[in-house]
Amino acid sequence: MAMTLNDDQNMLRDSARDFMASEAPVTHFRKFRDMGCKDGFSHDLWKQFAEMGFTGILIPEADGGMGMGQIEAGIVLEEIGRNLSPSPFLTTSVAAVEALKMADKAMRDRWFPGILAGETVIGIAIEEGVKHRPEKIACVATRSGNGFKLTGQKQFVVQGASSDMLIVAARTAGAAGETDGLTLFAVDKDAAGLSMEATRLLDSAVAAHVQLDGVQVDADAIIGEVDGGWTVLSKMLDAGRVGAAAEMVGVGTGAMDMTFDYLKTRKQFDRVIGEFQALQHRAAHLYGEMEGARSIVLKAQSLMDEGHAKAELYVAAAKAKAGLACNLSVREGVQMHGGIGMTDEYDIGLYMKRDRSLNEFFGDAYYHADRVATMNGY
Amino acid sequence: MSDLETFRTEARAWLEENCPAEMRTPAKGDDDVCWGGRNFVFQSEAQKLWLERCVAKGYTVPDWPKAYGGAGLSPQETKILRQEMAKLGCRSPLNSFGIWMLGPALLKFGTEEQKVHYMGQIARGEIRWCQGYSEPGSGSDLVSMQTFGEDKGDHWVVNGQKIWTSYADKADWIFCLVRTDKANKYHGISFLLFDMETAGVTTKPIKLISGNSPFCETFFDNVVVPKDQVVGEINRGWDVAKYLLGHEREMISGMGGDGGVTSIGAAMKATLSEEPVLRAQMALFDVDNLTFRAHGERFMDEWKTGKAHPAYSNLMKYVGTELNKKRNELVMSIGGSQALEWESERANGGSKARNWLRTKANSIEGGTSEVMLNVVSKRILEMPGG
Ligand SMILES: Cc1cc2nc3c(=O)[nH]c(=O)nc-3n(C[C@H](O)[C@H](O)[C@H](O)COP(=O)(O)OP(=O)(O)OC[C@H]3O[C@@H](n4cnc5c(N)ncnc54)[C@H](O)[C@@H]3O)c2cc1C
Ligand SMILES: Cc1cc2nc3c(=O)[nH]c(=O)nc-3n(C[C@H](O)[C@H](O)[C@H](O)COP(=O)(O)OP(=O)(O)OC[C@H]3O[C@@H](n4cnc5c(N)ncnc54)[C@H](O)[C@@H]3O)c2cc1C
């Protein structure tokens, strides 16, 4: 595949760019933050996403969706990132859809229509500790009736308390640390024994700590194979990771553009500060890092879309690089804005908070650099 | 099968039939590299044969037009040929500044006669070129150069000094920036071509920190250069020089030592597993390396379709050369005391240490990293100030 967007993708980018800039710019984010919205996003906006065709971008055409790939999902995510648009797109339309694509027809029919309509929100309940350790999952599912009983706890379930369903990874066999023996379940938000404590994050998103006390689920709640959940989980996580990476390209680019504009207008010492070479070199270096991040993310997306054997390696590298570059962008952004960069009134600090959250989501840069090393044989 | 797939099959078959087995092993050092030229001594029959066959097929410069010694391949076909050569481990049949730098400049600025003559010589490996840009007082600030050509009607008489002229002592001809109008800084430089055997040209090798001496001081003492040996218009050589630098930067940015996406970490597993901090550095390097390869791919695709910013190769040069230096730092750290050995057979004649030192020049030659950052900041980011 050529490493450039084709005409259709450019059109999608233009419409996503116009849409986010007009319907969900940073002022929209501020509005929902300042009202202390319990969901952390607007349900009306989610419906508008559906009208634009965004919510079903990854849903197969046979299931009524657009049948597109990670590149297209990434195009939307970049604009989300650039505008800090709060939405369930990454968790619901990217990660959850990727998992549900591997579910049976009854399950797809149950959830895809709501996602397509912008009515359904799905939470991803994987993490059990403060760092991303999917293979260490200890939450247990024991056979009970025609299905399983789930017991354990989950955390960092973004938009969990606003979700209609949670995708829960639990252990049906084996011990923590093993990739075999995991199973994925679709758990209804109203299931008995399921409780959640919603908690606000630094970027104003709302995540949940989830308690599962013997939650009974039927066999038809299983996504994929019993004990073979690692395959579905890996796909879901990789979609979420490359998606988060694309969003970070948007966040980093948004912060960078804002900073470069500031360098061209702020005057000190009788000069525009962009004239100072000390800042110019750092700006040029940052641009190079962001361009690199953009490239590796595109590469990872296209390898995923091709089903290439190296996709996993590139997704790990992309999540790591996008994380490092976006982080550099927001740090340089705040620094180069001087005192004003430290104020809540100015947007650059909002980008810094969003970056921190996305960096942590589905494994940080160090986690993924470590995976690159392992996959590269050392 | 698409045309490109047909081309791939044919190219592969041709390479399998024509590339001698000996030329499918990695070159061990600079001696194994074929630079061509009047005085080049072939290291083996296979090296000579490989060059001759590629010359006949136009494969020393596959993307040049057939009329000038190339094979007239499209960018896509050239990429495929390179991929197939890499898969079979084929060595480059011919390396030269003529191919990388002068050729593209001639293609853009040369007369038809110059193209046929000089590009043909380059493609056939007959003439080896060197680049006379830098002077003792003019490095990054190249346009301040002073080497002067006095107008004598149908020729110039050139006097002055160049420095850091790579392989000047081995080259047959030089492409040289010469001031032909002292009153005009930018529009007072001409791009001249002349034979290094012309009376008045002398070279003096300079030894590098790597112990090798690939470059020289080059002196011109009343050197006569006929007027038809100018490329482009008289006094407009700066345009040619800048265009050529773009290519040079592209070329240097493409160098990543062994180049590929393959990690050097696997072979060093034993050491890395005992040193978690070093392993972590290696891991972060691999992330950057995969990133750079993807970046290069994207840049080439955008370049071909005219979407890349004209100054973008400056960014690639900066990123690529800094990465290559990092790679060699890691190779030295992992190599430990053996990488310190300067001469022994065991340490392959000190190749790690010498390569490591050589790579330090990557971010100096062809424009320094700082100059690249200046260009990116001014031309791409459009930062203010002179
Ligand atoms: C939390 C906080 C508390 C503060 N408390 C006080 C206080 O109590 N009293 C008080 O008077 N002030 C206070 N300040 C203000 C502080 O001293 C200024 O913010 C600081 O001097 C920088 O000035 P500036 O914000 O105008 O940034 P600018 O000067 O506009 O700088 C913007 C960017 O340009 C860079 N820059 C500027 N000039 C150059 C140059 N010549 N070369 C290279 N780079 C350059 C800066 O490093 C910075 O990255 C406080 C600031 C903060 C954030
Ligand atoms: C291995 C090697 C091969 C070479 N081969 C050739 C060749 O074949 N032909 C040829 O003509 N030349 C060749 N060169 C020369 C090369 O192009 C110059 O060394 C290079 O342009 C830098 O010039 P300089 O050495 O005079 O350094 P200077 O320009 O004196 O630079 C010294 C330091 O100052 C920094 N600096 C300079 N200006 C600025 C600025 N405006 N802003 C910020 N920092 C600045 C530089 O980045 C550098 O770090 C070669 C050099 C090397 C190392």
Give a structural overview.
The complex is a heterodimer of chains A (378) and B (386). Chain A has 378 residues and is an alpha+beta fold. Chain A has 3 domains: 7-121, Butyryl-Coa Dehydrogenase, subunit A, domain 1 (Orthogonal Bundle); 124-227, Butyryl-CoA Dehydrogenase, subunit A, domain 2 (Beta Barrel), CATH 2.40.110.10; 231-375, Butyryl-CoA Dehydrogenase, subunit A, domain 3, CATH 1.20.140. In chain A, 50% of the residues lie in helices and 16% in strands. Chain A contains 11 helices and 10 strands. Chain A has helices at 7-23, 26-34, 43-51, 70-83, 89-100, 105-116, 229-263, 277-306, 311-336, 348-360, 365-375, and strands spanning 122-125, 140-144, 147-158, 165-171, 182-188, 194-200, 206-217, 222-223, 267-268, 271-272. In chain A, helix 5 (89-100) runs antiparallel to helix 6 (105-116), helix 8 packs antiparallel against helix 9 (311-336) and helix 9 (311-336) runs antiparallel to helix 11. By secondary structure, chain B is α+β, with helices and mostly antiparallel strands. Chain B has 3 domains: 3-95, Butyryl-Coa Dehydrogenase, subunit A, domain 1 (Orthogonal Bundle); 129-235, Butyryl-CoA Dehydrogenase, subunit A, domain 2; 254-380, Butyryl-CoA Dehydrogenase, subunit A, domain 3 (Up-down Bundle), CATH 1.20.140.10. Chain B has helices at residues 3-18, 45-57, 75-88, 97-109, 112-123, 237-254, 269-274, 276-304, 312-335, 351-359, 369-380; strands spanning 129-132, 148-151, 155-166, 173-179, 189-195, 201-206, 215-226, 230-231. A 4-stranded mixed beta sheet of chain B has the order 1-4-5-8. In chain B, a hairpin with a 3-residue loop joins strand 2 and strand 3. In chain B, helix 4 runs antiparallel to helix 5 (112-123). The termini of chain B are far apart. The model of chain B has no long low-confidence stretch (mean pLDDT 93). The A-B interface holds A 2-4, 260, 263-264, 271-272, 274-275, 277, 280-281, 283-285, 287-288, 291-296, 298-299, 313-314, 317, 320-321, 324, 365-366, 368-370, 372-373, 376-378 and B 263, 265-266, 268-269, 272-273, 279-280, 282-284, 286-288, 290-292, 294-295, 297-302, 305, 307, 315, 318-319, 370, 372-374, 376-378, 380-385.
